[in-house]
Write a structure and sequence with these properties.
Two copies of one chain form a homodimer. With 426 residues, chain A is α+β, with helices and mostly antiparallel strands. Chain A contains 16 helices and 17 strands. In chain A, the strands form three sheets. In chain A, strands 1, 5, 6, 7, 8, 9, 10, 11 and 12 form a nine-stranded mixed beta sheet that branches. A five-stranded mixed beta sheet of chain A has the order 14-13-15-16-17, with helices on both faces. Chain A has a three-stranded antiparallel beta sheet with strand order 2-4-3.
Chain lengths: 426, 426
Amino acid sequence: MEFQAVKGTRDFYPEQMALRNWLTETWRRVSIRNGFVEFDAPIIEYLDLFRVKSGDEIVSQLFSFTDRGGRELALRPEITPTLARMVNARIHSLPRPIKWFSIPRLFRAENPQRGRLREFFQWNVDIIGSGETLADAECIFTAVDLLAEVGLTPQDVAVRIGSRPLTVAALRRVGVQEAGMEAALAALDKRPNLSAEDFARLAAEAGIAPEGLAQLCAFQDAGDLQAAAEALGGGKEVEEETAKLRALMEQLGHMGAGEYCRLDLRIVRGLAYYTGVVYEIHDAGGRLRAIAGGGRYDNLLEVLGGPEVGATGFGMGDVVLTILLAEKHKLPDVSARLDCFVVSAAPGLGPAVLEVVGALRRRGVVADYSFKRTSLSRQLKEANRRRADYAVIVRADGLAVKDLRTGQQREVCREELLADPGRHLS
Amino acid sequence: MEFQAVKGTRDFYPEQMALRNWLTETWRRVSIRNGFVEFDAPIIEYLDLFRVKSGDEIVSQLFSFTDRGGRELALRPEITPTLARMVNARIHSLPRPIKWFSIPRLFRAENPQRGRLREFFQWNVDIIGSGETLADAECIFTAVDLLAEVGLTPQDVAVRIGSRPLTVAALRRVGVQEAGMEAALAALDKRPNLSAEDFARLAAEAGIAPEGLAQLCAFQDAGDLQAAAEALGGGKEVEEETAKLRALMEQLGHMGAGEYCRLDLRIVRGLAYYTGVVYEIHDAGGRLRAIAGGGRYDNLLEVLGGPEVGATGFGMGDVVLTILLAEKHKLPDVSARLDCFVVSAAPGLGPAVLEVVGALRRRGVVADYSFKRTSLSRQLKEANRRRADYAVIVRADGLAVKDLRTGQQREVCREELLADPGRHLS
């Protein structure tokens, strides 16, 4: 009878867990210093919450089941619908802007692929209650702050920033109607991964007339906002949206994130609900899946029964980021260490060892000892294996502290050690 | 269209999330200082993993579903089978004793009650690879270290320690056969919550002969090990087991946890898999469900396909502990604070504010600012609402730092502030 982890999920042995904790803590620290507060929610939600946001097709992409009361439940595949549900429930009492982050565990009932698992973690950073481009800049800056914090430079990664309204304008201009917009956006979203021929085929399937393709590509491939606006033939809405993008890029520049960010109108995002700026973070080589993706979604709270309110944010998964950090040798050494390992120098000192261990731990010292009554040298060997900085040696007539990195050893008075362990064990 | 959280689950708004993080971090810190390392595993496991450990009846108590490949999966209701699975997979390479902790999110398909939810967190502390009572003492000490750390005293809580082998011996002595042992243990486990009459009825249903009840209760109610051994009529196994319990209590005393711990042979634990010492932590009044429960389970790894190896540990849920801490006013103030709020003293300084905010955050300062261009006094009001310690005031001709707790304000050179923000903002 041998059991394994379910395919597409991960066991976190202590070495993997330490890395996961490092990443989680880094996400948390960066979020907090950018003025966000953390929330979370149940992993189980009513299936309808996801249906309302994403339509019936989502059902095949998530784990769902029925509880004993006959209710259809699902494991959350993303946190945004939950965020909207929670904010809607307190929309009149929460001071705005609402700056929330979360590090949810998420589930997808898909076949696992490189960079895409069935169970994973995703850092989510959102601002609700502001329509200002400053709120978009704030989210993007927070993502960049994280990238810099983990040692990724503008040579390693880039935030590629596009515009949903400009993309929609470009599609309208080549004759795509409202009813066909979602399919057309989904096709455009795939363009960067397709050859020109394959894209042309997909675009035709999605109802984009072949004679519009060149114009569409001219817009998407525009090197700057001026060229993009010209490709769209100008007009009030185009001017407004390009002005917003220009302001956003300036704000990111002021905050010191400009080097990481660049305009890229090929960024579309597959999901239907974006209403403004959209962006993805990619490795510079573009070999991996997106590290993060996000944008403005001003309608979602309303769709879920709340008011019309500005909302913007992104999600960054743990899987692709960790692959990139491993490739770049940017993962830290997170091996477990002990402050000290308490050893006995002679038989019969077990109770004294326990007293010292208990007292040190209660004072916050990371301390351990051997359950086995072995020789002093074997205990010191275990101390080294456990990566203890110090050994505290318990003798019949007192204590000694040995620095295991230098080999230096000296007597200490027991009361002094316990009164101020930090002074003797550092 | 209004959505709510699924019954028996919890939304963690920022104030609840901060408390959850505080508890999680405290569990983690106490585990680490006691020499444990953290692991985790998927929330989804093969249903059979739980069936093998707990039998078919477990299936109705957990959330299960079938994936697209037709595999029966379940949301974990506990982490111990997963722990055994993971340790078994590396049993030959992991140095022993294996001291692991985990803070898993767990799920039960039950009707929620006070102190018992369908989704919750549970701190698990386990030692595998040691049959010594020191390993049991180590786990219990770690639990006590946590209780003391969160401010609970021996007047608030107690670790009540029983013995599965002595309880089994007592049941054998009154005629219970191996085949009836599990049912008899389950009945005894319920005794503390029942009247004498109700217990007698339940015991009869579980196959305990009425004439044995007085003897059984005399054993369970024994005030010390001597009396318990006498109630069992002595014998080699009884002597060995009482000697182990005595050693355990002494070890806990040496470590400084004695005041929290007491012998209580009415502690049985419902689960079949315990093989040695068993214990529960209860509030002193005994009004709430158990705060924690655990014991020795030397057979579990073998049942799950591994070797016969000593194993011991406990689980402590977040729900009952949090109820008790709230009642005792021991929950800390975890409201979010900012190190500083950056405000502009005049229109047109938006870019300068963004520059200062970005630079401070990159240096680790928890900094925020207002998206709205409002008056200085309104911005300072927002700084106070956000609980900022300082306001950094951006003027056309330089910066000032205002201590929002004292009202003191002084000019600072921008370069100096950014070079060493800690000196100016603390």
